[in-house]
Description:
- By secondary structure, the protein is an alpha+beta fold.
- Helices cover 36% and strands 16% of the residues.
- It contains 15 helices and 13 strands.
- It has helices at 7-17, 28-40, 43-55, 85-95, 99-115, 156-172, 178-185, 248-265, 302-305, 333-338, 389-400, 415-428, 448-461, 468-472, 477-487; strands at residues 75-82, 121-126, 143-148, 191-197, 210-213, 225-232, 235-242, 290-291, 309-313, 326-331, 347-349, 361-371, 377-382.
- Strands 3-2-4-6-7-1-5 form a 7-stranded mixed β-sheet, with helices on one face.
- A hairpin with a 5-residue loop joins β12 (361-371) and β13.
- α5 crosses α8 (248-265), α12 packs antiparallel against α13 and α12 crosses α15 (477-487).
- The radius of gyration is 25 Å and the shape is globular.
Amino acid sequence: xxxxxxxxxxxxxxxxxxxxxxxxxxxxxxxxxxxxxxxxxxxxxxxxxxxxxxxxxxxxxxxxxxxxxxxxxxxxxxxxxxxxxxxxxxxxxxxxxxxxxxxxxxxxxxxxxxxxxxxxxxxxxxxxxxxxxxxxxxxxxxxxxxxxxxxxxxxxxxxxxxxxxxxxxxxxxxxxxxxxxxxxxxxxxxxxxxxxxxxxxxxxxxxxxxxxxxxxxxxxxxxxxxxxxxxxxxxxxxxxxxxxxxxxxxxxxxxxxxxxxxxxxxxxxxxxxxxxxxxxxxxxxxxxxxxxxxxxxxxxxxxxxxxxxxxxxxxxxxxxxxxxxxxxxxxxxxxxxxxxxxxxxxxxxxxxxxxxxxxxxxxxxxxxxxxxxxxxxxxxxxxxxxxxxxxxxxxxxxxxxxxxxxxxxxxxxxxxxxxxxxxxxxxxxxxxxxxxxxxxxxxxxxxxxxxxxxxxxxxxxxxxxxxxxxxxxxxxxxxxxxxxxxxx
Length: 488
């Protein structure tokens, strides 16, 4: 993880060692630091806060695909997506946008299909080298930029143009620190995307998936799912760095879906025309099992569900990837009889098995579900739930900030622990009562930059020698305390 240099710095150092760069001592990083200092006290700082406040005002608090269970290892997954670079460049030139914007838009659309949310949140990296003279400057200029893109159905060209504009505006307003945004809008860096052009050597990657597992359990990762695209000859390579929240099967499905979405964006007129389905639907069985057992549709029982075909679909009635969240549709002759007097708006022509007797129509249940590995349907929620994620988030805020309601906070048991908590709260601008031992500090703004500052605070206030890299790998309050105690 970057602390004092970015990926471009590595390339610059290699060029200097090979004699390709012979400039005098580089002082442009001082200009950059001066620019950022001025921005912090300018109107841009406040306008940045307002910009992000509007962006996330109507964005749901769901930002990650549901995790898999019993995973011990994360890893790296690689795949070559094909000779698509010329088509991407042609599309970008036609729309007056960049290839990066197309790749990022494809990531957003893929993510939205997995979480059943048309305004997915994630972060991307801005190289931060927007000043003249920084092309060959050594240092850490990258900014973490959060974004929420609207992936609702419309013309592909309009989607790409609007997404491009949103990304440019987000980079322009990234003067407002991510650590503050994380605390204010329940953001984190668990889902990330980056276009690295030619920074990584990926010539070894082929069209077959290559999985490199972690060499130890619970190995720290920058994010739970970090998508990275690199140029590779006439094509591009897609890499996903993933934690043990997901298994390799889920990651491969995500990458296959991304590939189909990317090709779909440059070959279809409307988003709804993109055929990103990669899995066959659940085969007809003696019964369609739904868990938890108490979640059963009114009027339905195992007898009604016998021989019913289940389809998990998105809002445009496309099959979602296996393991992704979608709305449950059911089809069988028995269901048609059970709901024959119901509202016709809940019945649709079955585009999958409509030519089979008894399966001509499918019933819209309103239930959000996902397939588990054994074929069982796991209930996730309701489409028409009256309690929105925004309301839940606001309720959590109210609870966190109310002394009488918040009872699960951490109370230091020693003077050392008290000082550790004080350092963390001071740096991340949070209150002690908002923390418990398992609090994920990344949700409060812990990143590589704040880790560097926290390292300085620890060393100054506690007289210990702790590196920033050790701090960034300890993401909870409990592991921070153990780290400091170990070094004391």
